[in-house]
Design goal:
Helix content: 25-40%
Distance between the termini: 124 Å
Number of helices: 5
Length: 389
């Protein structure tokens, strides 16, 4: 008898093809998921690298400004910090500009890139963004990078995202508010696996960690100035109390004299003042250390205390953000609401019967940064502080 051959029925063949189709679809979905994960990982890497480079160059810019923008030319005309004409147009925050296609998407920094400090900053920016945004051009005042995958970069300091940097948007670019911490938004061009654009996506990060570090740095500077003035005043009082009549003053007068005023002496290069030597009723030998006419700006006071306390280290003329630091010598003299507009009156020379005069303790000095001289604003330890003598 002839045996018949068996094959697949149509039902069995259909089931087999269905299973194959299901397996294939699952494979494609898995492959798509792997590709999507790879694309997501690439985006996260871009964001992370950009954020790190952004913060690194921001700190480097502030460090550069601390060296380039702190020279006080004279007592009466000196300006420093971001108000320095050399640094007024410098900005630690980059600006994004797009004029066409991907090749025309640029990120640029305006800064004083001249000299050793400027060159070091340029190299830091280029190195930090080397794998993200290649160099386009560099001059003594601008460094430009090409960021082809970037669609936009904006800043938000509480009133919505704008293209203006936190420095440019505040006070004509003369200061950076250390309290208003900005957020940064990157608008990124997401691509498919075939290189076609799918959609733009946003990535936001905050500068809170960097600002916290710089706030601490500001507070450290202010505290060092405050401590130096306090210790100077106390040491002068103790020394003068040990300098009794007839060469020195009566101890009661010593207690009333604002000896810290000698720290604001008219010649910044003077060393420590000598003890009082009475000539008639006053300490005539202290005339070189006792400022009798006040400067037109606060520059004279800063020049003197930087020379006396910090060996001429001008980094103490600005806070941790490059903002101008001021000292108002005798806080009680300011009867208006803002130390920045108050006139300073020189106290009388040390003399006999000081206790009967118009200058009376307790004395205090105000140390404040640009924009925070107003008594109506609530200060923080890194914007305004007082020295109680």
């Amino acid at each position: 008898m002839k045996k018949s051959k068996k094959g697949f029925t149509l039902l069995e063949l259909g089931i087999s093809l269905g299973l194959i189709a299901i397996i294939y679809i699952s494979f494609l979905e898995g492959l798509s998921s792997v590709r999507e994960d790879a694309r997501t990982a690439k985006e996260i890497s871009y964001y992370s690298n950009f954020e790190q480079a952004f913060k690194r160059t921001f700190i480097a810019s502030l460090d550069a400004a601390e060296q380039k923008c702190t020279q006080i030319a004279t007592d009466n005309t000196g300006v420093w910090g971001w108000k320095d004409p050399t640094c007024k147009n410098s900005d630690p925050f980059p600006v994004f500009k797009a004029t066409g296609g991907a090749k025309d998407r640029i990120l640029y920094w305006d800064f004083d890139f001249t000299g050793t400090v400027g060159l070091s900053l340029r190299n830091t920016i280029k190195t930090s963004f080397h794998n993200i945004c290649p160099l386009v051009s560099e001059t003594g005042t601008r460094l430009t990078l090409r960021c082809s995958n970037l669609l936009n970069l904006q800043y938000n300091v509480g009133s919505g995202y704008t293209a203006a940097t936190p420095k440019a948007a505040l006070g004509g670019g003369l200061r950076i508010d250390p309290i208003m911490v900005p957020s940064v938004r990157l608008r990124y061009e997401r691509h498919s696996t075939l290189g076609k654009v799918i959609k733009p996506v946003n990535f936001d990060f905050t500068m809170n960690d960097v600002y916290t570090l710089r706030q601490v740095y500001s507070r450290t500077k202010i505290n060092q100035i405050r401590k130096s003035l306090f210790q100077f005043h106390k040491s002068q009082i103790f020394a003068e109390i040990g300098n009794p009549p007839a060469s020195g003053l009566h101890s009661m007068d010593d207690e009333f004299i604002p000896w810290f005023w000698e720290a604001f002496r008219p010649a910044a290069s003077l060393g420590s003042p000598p003890l009082c030597v009475l000539s008639g009723a006053s300490c005539g030998n202290l005339s070189s250390w006792w400022r009798t006419s006040v400067p037109l700006t606060r520059g004279g006071y800063m020049r003197s205390i930087i020379s006396l306390f910090f060996s001429g280290d001008t980094r103490f003329t600005v806070d941790g953000f490059g903002n101008t630091l001021y000292v108002y010598p005798i806080a009680s003299q300011c009867t208006t609401t803002d130390f920045s507009t108050c006139v300073v009156t020189a106290p009388p020379m040390p003399t006999k019967s000081y206790v009967t005069g118009s200058f009376r303790p307790p004395y205090s000095s105000a140390i404040y940064i640009e924009g925070y001289g107003s008594k109506t604003t609530t200060p923080s330890a890194y914007t305004r502080a007082y020295v109680a003598y």
